[in-house]
Write a structure and sequence with these properties.
- The chain is mainly α and about 160 residues long.
- It has two domains: about 5-65; about 85-160, no CATH class.
- Helices cover about 60% and strands about 0% of the residues.
- It has helices at about 5-25, 45-60, 85-105, 105-120, 125-150.
- Helix 4 runs antiparallel to helix 5.
- The longest helix is centred in the first third of the chain and has 23 residues, at about 5-25.
């Protein structure tokens, strides 16, 4: 069995356990007033588990493969060092730096920096569009989390407030 099918089998087993928990155990402790709501806390996990089970079954059964095309591997592992790995590794380092800087630097500075540097690593060179869009997206996400959802998210670094 190919590697993608083994991975699909593992994901299928995990999603079946997750789906069992979503369908049979998550709603057992709901208070009586929530039992009449159209959307329960388990609604999204139910949808997610069903979609993941269907997707992994499609891969496991080989329904996504085209029969008329010659099979070309996506990545040739024997030539791995010939690929341009620098952007991928730089993005991984940037993700770790973002996670470490989120609290001390604040959400707005760290997220906008992550978006700008990440886009620059991926090859975006129109900074006159990139910087305002990244700042706007960061501000909108911060407002939605802080203002709409009511979850405190430190916008500025520690030393600024």
């Amino acid at each position: 069995m190919a590697l993608d099918r083994w991975i699909a089998l593992i994901i299928l087993i995990i999603c079946m356990a997750y789906g069992y928990a979503a369908f049979f155990t998550m709603d057992a402790d709901l208070p009586p007033f929530m039992r009449h709501n159209p959307i329960w806390p388990s609604t999204f996990p139910k949808v997610l588990s069903v979609m993941a089970i269907l997707t992994s079954l499609v891969i496991l059964l080989g329904l996504e493969k085209h029969s008329g095309e010659a099979k070309v591997p996506d990545i040739d592992h024997t030539r791995l060092l010939e690929y341009n790995l620098a952007p991928a590794l730089a993005l991984l380092v940037l993700m770790v730096a973002y996670a470490l800087l989120l609290r001390p630097a604040g959400f707005i500075l760290s997220t906008s920096g992550f978006l700008i540097l990440g886009a620059a690593i991926l090859g975006e060179r129109k900074f006159q569009y990139l910087i305002p869009i990244a700042l706007l997206a960061t501000g909108v996400v911060w407002y939605l989390v802080q203002g709409v959802l009511g979850i405190f998210l430190r916008p500025l670094p520690y030393f600024m407030g």
